[in-house]
Amino acid sequence: MLAPAQRPDLARIQAYYDETWLDYRLLWMNPRNGAIHFGYWDERTRSHSESLVNMNRALASRIGIQPGQRVLDAGCGVGGSAIWLAETYGVEVVGITPVAGQVARARSYARRRGITDRVSFEEQDYTRTTFPDASFDVVWALESACHAPDKRLFLAEARRLLRPGGRLGIAEYMRTSRPYSAADEALLQSWLSGWAIPDLATAGEWLQWAAGAGFQDARVEDITPNVCPSLLRLFRMATLLWGVELALRACRLRSETQHGNVRGARDQYRALRRGLWIYAMLTATASQDGGDRV
Questions:
Q1: 209 backbone dihedrals φ, ψ, rounded to 5°
Q2: Which of 157, 155, 88 lies closest to 119 in space, CA to CA?
Q3: Which residues of 217-252 are buried (b: 16+ CB within 10 A; e: fewer)?
Q4: 139: helix, coil or strand?
Q5: Residues with Cβ within 8 Å of residue 213, at least 6 apart in sequence
Q6: pLDDT digits 0-9 by tens, 87-104
Q7: What is 10-175+198-223+276-286's CATH number, 3.30.1020.10, 3.10.580.10, 2.40.10.10, 3.40.50.150?
Q8: pLDDT tens by residue, 220-274
């Protein structure tokens, strides 16, 4: 059982994203999409870059985002999804991240796109924000809730911020069961520790906690087949670069955090092949009354 009221380790999250920024910038994203998440592949997808945008589109369609809504991007990274949502749907988006460097980059990208009237970015913890109750129509979390040791805190804050009938949309890594054997748990934790992720929740846990937080009609959809090409791409890149990575680490030209990032890129796919996790989307609706307080 997770320890109650365990807040995210903001210092660790900040260090991870600060130290691995060059990895993401050179090997994964481009300034146009600003995406540091995995891609979604369907029959129309033709490139890695397209798949990254498709992930935004896939989550937005499942949430049912409408023009004029106010959206919180909880764990916004460098603003890629927030900017895309504002441009595509005509919504107002507030992006939050505990990483100051990400806030600065997100604001810079928004200025370049001429969209600062519809997007803004702040340095905040998504488990205890400064926003008033019922101030958003949508809470969006794309591969960010994983950094919360206790996902119930994230869900409770999301429910507080949503207006009754508001929508929650999460794209996330989820355990297939709990507990695992010692060997399987070690492999999973080798990946997670490299990416500053304390643990994953199962789909059943997410659904139980969402109901307790005051959400209804919660649904988890396993989209692993659509994301697998992106996961495999990262694994192959990390495997190809592993020898160089080991040499650079031995020469102390790569930090332990940077080294863990590449190790995690290899072990995430190894753990996937052993059936230890899935990639899923969770959507839910804020009920008219609140949920349990954490």
A1: -70, -35
A2: 88
A3: ebebeebeebbeebbebbbebbeebeeebeeebeee
A4: strand
A5: 152, 155, 156, 158, 159, 291, 292, 294
A6: 999 999 999 999 999 999
A7: 3.40.50.150
A8: 999 999 999 999 999 999 999 999 999 999 999 999 999 999 999 999 999 999 9
